[in-house]
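URGENT: need a sanity check before tomorrow's submission.

F., can you look over the GOLD domain-containing protein record below? I want to be sure the sequence and structure line up before it goes out.
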Amino acid sequence: MHAWLAVFLAVLAVSRAEQATEKLQDEYMMTIDVPAGRTECFFQPLTHEKFIAMAINYQVIGGGNNDISFIVTNPRGDLIVNDERQPSGEHKILLDDKNQRGDYQFCFDNSFSYQSSKMLYFEVMLLDTNGDYMASYQRMFENEKLLGEQMETFTSITTKVKNNLNQIERDQANIRIVEARDRSVMEHNFENVNFYGMLYVFVMLTTFGVQVYMVRSLFEERSKVGKLLRGTGH
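Structure tokens as predicted:
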């Protein structure tokens, strides 16, 4: 009974902390379309003392050869990531003497493509010292010291559940991305098969028609082509 009461009080404490404390968003997921010949850039602040690293994952799910160039610059303008025409990528940026706190810019460059736009999925995660990205919950729990060991247990369980749910969400997103990319490849191959199939049929019919015409010309005395084939053109 006391355990259930502790859990109930913990939920109330979290609710109060959410109202009194500004929530920190530490995870972003987005699907975008980068037109041909264009570059799409985003800015991600890494300023809060809770976070010591940033992880960025991206994957092209449709368009052209399913490739994109990816660039990341730190607050001083230094280039720290430069992927050239890759289908996907995973990067973890740690704060150090070179990479300091501030606004980080990351860009998806499709300027090398003249016709094909690229659809891609990316996610950005801000990590704390434990490698977790649920800073808002952790910070709220640190401000509430009323429940002692029960609060620590509730924090541990909530953290584990949140991390598991985040992992499941990432896995499901990756499955959807792979499915969308495979569907795009299959549709592209289907279009190629139809195009070349029609081309081969046209070539075969044209060749058949030419052969029939030439054979008939051999048996027609007045045909100039027949005379040329028989060697009696003169």
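My own read: Residues 77 and 147 are 46 Å apart (CA to CA). Residues 22-149 form a domain with the Jelly Rolls fold (CATH 2.60.120.680). If you see anything odd, call me.
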